Amino acid sequence: MDPTEKADSLIEALPYLQAFRGKTFLIKMGGSAMEDPDLVAKVMRDIVFLEVAGINPIVVHGGGKAISAAMEAAGLEAKFVGGFRVTTDEAIDIVSRVLSEEINPGLVRMIRNFGGKAVGIPGNDVFLGEKIKGTDSEGRRVDIGRVGEVVGCQMAHMDAAHHAGIVPVISPLAAELATGRPLNINADLAAAALAKELRVAKLVYLSDVPGLLSDPKDPSTLIKSVTRKEADAMITDGTISGGMIPKIRSAVDALNAGVRKVHFVDGRLPHALLLEIFTDGGVGTEVVR
Ligand SMILES: Nc1ncnc2c1ncn2[C@@H]1O[C@H](COP(=O)(O)OP(=O)(O)O)[C@@H](O)[C@H]1O
Ligand SMILES: CC(=O)N[C@@H](CCC(=O)OP(=O)(O)O)C(=O)O
């Protein structure tokens, strides 16, 4: 690329930099895009870029794959009902350990290594939750253990990080309202709950697909833009399945609650986050109102 082209790229970003300065973006980093530490580091560097550009990024991370691996190593079977992990009392200790002692500090360290400021906040210091039941494939409601949904947010730690200009990195756990004990929360739902609470300008889901696909088996069938209504219809007709369901449901929910825009981006593609936010074409899918 010649120097003028480089300058053109910077100039293309100018209107976005102007529009987004001072705005809050919530980035959900999925476990499926966290298999390769070099790629994760690149995403964290993009987060530092956002912070330096005057945007307030917040990271909510998942870790489903790492949790399943840790459970299997401990001789426990990783089982899901309706997309939620069956979380026994034994399993919640593993879930908490992997999220709060391995993944969360790892992300914080990466941001700091790139000269950014970050603080790890255990989800159970932010989210208040209540236990939920799962719905099995026959539509029956079944006990899935220590799994919850977010019913409230405690913003003291978040506010302190915001005022100090530090990027909060939050794990998907909640403190059970009745007991204070930890509950396991699907990270997509945790991200959407916080995005709604803060009415963020953007909620970005980073996963292991190019975005929303009209044929989930064919990565070339990327849908660039989808409305809430179209997304709902794609769930009903089965085009959207598995891990994409909680993402789309929470996207629609977040838009209904006032979040301006939701993006689905490929976390494996270097700098997908920056390309989606700062270029005219974008690279993933945007869900609009
Ligand atoms: N229509 C669709 N478009 C894209 N992905 C889809 C679709 N339907 C199902 N999926 C699945 O959703 C997965 C992403 O969800 P998940 O594995 O839970 O990711 P994460 O760990 O990032 O939360 C994709 O890997 C893909 O297999
Ligand atoms: C209740 C429930 O299923 N919790 C999830 C939390 C982690 C998560 O959601 O991670 P991803 O974003 O990588 O899928 C789990 O235990 O896997």
Which features characterize this protein?
289 residues, alpha/beta, Carbamate kinase, four-stranded mixed β-sheet, 9 helices, binds adenosine-5'-diphosphate, binds N-acetyl-L-glutamyl 5-phosphate
In short:
It is built from nine helices and 16 strands. With 289 residues, it is an alpha/beta fold.
How would you describe this structure to a colleague?
The chain has 289 residues and is of the alpha/beta class. It has a single domain (22-288), classed as 3-Layer(aba) Sandwich (Carbamate kinase), CATH 3.40.1160.10. It has nine helices and 16 strands. An eight-stranded mixed β-sheet has the order 5-10-2-1-13-15-16-14, with helices on both faces. The chain has a four-stranded mixed β-sheet with strand order 9-6-11-12. Helix 3 (64-73) packs across helix 4 (89-113), helix 6 packs parallel to helix 8 (244-256) and helix 7 packs antiparallel against helix 8. It is globular. It starts with a helix and ends with a strand. The model has no long low-confidence stretch (mean pLDDT 94). The structure holds adenosine-5'-diphosphate and N-acetyl-L-glutamyl 5-phosphate. Substrate binds at residues 63-64, 85, 184.
What is the gyration radius calculated from CA atoms? Answer: 18 Å
Distance between the termini: 37 Å
Beta-strand segment tally: 16
CATH architecture assignment:
3-Layer(aba) Sandwich
Beta-strand portion reads: 15-25%
Unreliable runs, pLDDT <50, ≥5 residues?
none
Basic shape: globular
The top level CATH class name: Alpha Beta
Structural class: alpha/beta
Per CATH, what is the topology?
Answer: Carbamate kinase
Pfam families: AA_kinase
Subcellular location: Cytoplasm
InterPro entries: AceGlu_kinase-like_sf (IPR036393), AcgluKinase_fam (IPR004662), ArgB (IPR037528), Asp/Glu/Uridylate_kinase (IPR001048), Glu/AcGlu_kinase (IPR001057)
GO cellular component, one term: cytoplasm
